[in-house]
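WP5 quarterly update. Target: Tripartite tricarboxylate transporter permease TctA. Source organism: Leucobacter alluvii. Length: 512 aa.
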Amino acid sequence: MESLQLLMEGFAGALTWQNLVWVLVGCLLGTAVGVMPGLGSSMAVALLLPVTFSLEPTAAFIMFAGVYFGGLFGDSTMGILMNTPGQASAIASTFEGHKMALNGKAAQALATAAIGAFVGGFIASILVVFLAPALADFSSSFGPAEFFALAVFAFVATSSVVTDNAVKGLAALFIGLGIAVIGIDGASGAPRFTLDSPFLFDGISLVTVTVAVLALGEVIYVACLERHMNDKAIIKPKGRPWLSKAEFREAMPAWLRGTVIGVPFGVVPAGGSEIPTFLAYGLEKRLDARRKTPRFGTGAIRGLAAPEAAGNSTTGMAMGALLALGLPISATAAIMLAAFRQYGLQPGPLLFERAPDLVWVLLASFFIAMIVLLILNLPFAMLWAKLLLIPRPYLYAGITVFCALGIYATSGSIFDLFLLLGIGFVGFLMRALDFPIAPLIIGMVLGPLAETSLRDAAMSANGDFSVLVSGPITMALYGLLLLVLVFAVRGRIVGRRRAKAAEAADRQSVGA
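Structure tokens (predicted):
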């Protein structure tokens, strides 16, 4: 009951005209960047970080949340209409969604995606209201050893479990950790990896790194591939932008199953929405195979409904994990964690005590954002698709200028512009060589927390490092991490065996 009362107070703050404007702005920006292939919510939040210094924290985070949710809506729109998902989390939705569009049901496919995202996000938001305070109370029992274990869990899970190549994932993680330790050591006061340059004594700003890697690196990559990129035709939706009763009854079980699958992944740092969307799609495909007349492969509405609900339910719970535990499960959440620190706030139990107005207004804004996004996407999906008519040179040139202006406005240093260019080139190389970006961002955000927690734990135990694995919470976290790794390795081994068996079958068929 206390949570409901606090949520009502949050709605009173969120429903002011100023905050409603920021909800709308965030949803519009998130949907817009989601529609554009190659862009995404992580890039949008990174670009907005420098320009939100002057905003009140509540307004800034309401806008960031709208961008986070809106990005998923936009991603699925392009996956359905062009078979070109904006982000990896929308890949599973394209399998059946694009086939629905090819069959003349593009409008119904967009409606299925929009309602599915609404259902998943709305249910997850309800769970966050009741679970986030409990998680925050639970995290109040965390000490330095527990926070170090949580950071290690996030490091290993995001760098080795999610990525196809664990070596590349770990390499990206260590790049992020290496950038995080540059500057003056807070404990000893000694400069570390500064090359005796006074410009690096304060370290490298996370804002500079995120803008360089996510935005400028992507711009350079797109510029290099521009000649090889083929523009695909957009399927124009025709007919009713809503579902019939039969279609709604067909999709509803898949929406609910997808939501159930996606919710747990909002608390586990396993890369965000990618894994649950594929799991939801796979479950619906197995269930469909039991039917007398399987529909998958021809535009099955359940194959689109489940991944959409799973993706947004994961995102909704991810916001709860971020607020209650300070645990980012994706690159976008990691940047939002950096934004909290930018305002002098630390997510966790102290956030609920020191800034309850911010927390509950933000939670209330989740529900408002879901409704706004449903209104924006059900009837106006085709209008968003027209953003693809913007010439790429103008679009990416504008992003480059925005990157430079944002960084210079926050620091006033020419040196930071050179850093932006240099790290942007590193981001381009990572993109070109298929190195994941999320481990780098999470390594840089959680690296200082891991280092401080390790020192504090060792000092409190007089140098006895066994304290890191002595508590029940730390043992549970390391045990869960081991379990996740075992399942990940098993999945890859099974996948390779199936691939080899398929190759052998193809060779036999060719030989025959």
